[in-house]
Write a structure and sequence with these properties.
The protein has one helix and 22 strands. It is mainly β.
């Protein structure tokens, strides 16, 4: 089942300084409980949550300074019962030398997936990404923006260039793989107290702190810190890296 509802909204310039025109697109797709979701966006925040329905719901809010720019933004959605993919496309402005890059618009996504779904390929360029309650594998990256996740339970790859990363895990299982990376920003992972993980962490300019009593190797000469340690039996793997920013390995305040 697919429901596609476009809603247009026009606002006075005094009320919306940056976005004079908006359009909301809503789309709902019947999928399996373990379906996957992917997204490619350029400008705008992405928020992904969960529910107990076998459906993926996508709400895309398009905003621009002009109707021409708004009309040039296309939200492309493909779906079947196992996967839904979404892509933001800026149609070329033939009157501009720089084409699509002169478009003033952005798209903010609010997505709801089944709890057992996976995020196969979620990419953004300018905007933050938040994920809550997804129990399947997660692969998320942005260039300019933060990443914040809560309630994860499976493999995770979280990367940003300019921004902080905070990843909270409800549970960690044997052979689970977790990769967290940032170039300019802090990275934090929050683990259950009873997690069994081997941890590798490294930063060039920043400190490494941990709530689990692991020893941090601070370089005697030059910048940088490293951590190679094990919590419990070390059956899962955690790899955290940053260039300019600190790293923290935190213990969850209670059983999640």
């Amino acid at each position: 089942m697919r429901l596609l509802v476009p809603i247009f909204m026009f606002a006075f310039a005094g009320q919306l300084a940056d976005s004079a025109v908006t359009e909301t697109i809503e789309s709902t797709h019947a999928v399996t409980a373990d379906a996957s979701f992917s997204l490619e966006n350029i400008n705008g925040n992405v928020e992904i949550g969960t529910w107990d329905r076998a459906e993926i719901r996508v709400v895309a809010l398009k905003s621009a300074r002009s109707q021409e720019d708004l009309d040039a933004i296309e939200v492309k959605i493909k779906s079947d019962d196992t996967h839904v993919s979404v892509k933001t496309d800026y149609n070329r402005n033939e009157g501009s030398f720089f084409g699509k890059w002169t478009n003033s618009g952005d798209v903010t996504y609010t997505v709801t997936v089944p709890t057992g779904a996976s995020l196969r390929h979620v990419r953004n360029i300018n905007g933050k990404i938040t994920v809550d309650g997804v129990s399947g594998p997660v692969d998320v990256a942005t260039v300019n923006g933060s990443i914040a996740t809560t309630g994860l339970r499976d493999d995770a790859k979280l990367e940003t260039v300019n921004g902080n990363v905070k990843a909270e895990f409800a549970s960690v299982s044997a052979d689970q793989s977790i990769e967290i990376g940032s170039v300019n920003g802090r990275s934090e992972i929050v683990l259950p107290e009873n997690a069994d993980v081997g941890i590798k962490a490294r930063t060039v300019h920043g400190k490494i702190r941990t709530d689990f009593g692991l020893e941090v190797d601070k370089r005697k000469y030059g910048p940088g810190s490293r951590l190679n340690g094990q919590i419990g039996e070390g059956t899962a793997s955690v790899d955290i890296s940053t260039v300019n920013g600190g790293i923290r390995v935190s213990k969850a305040s209670g059983t999640l």
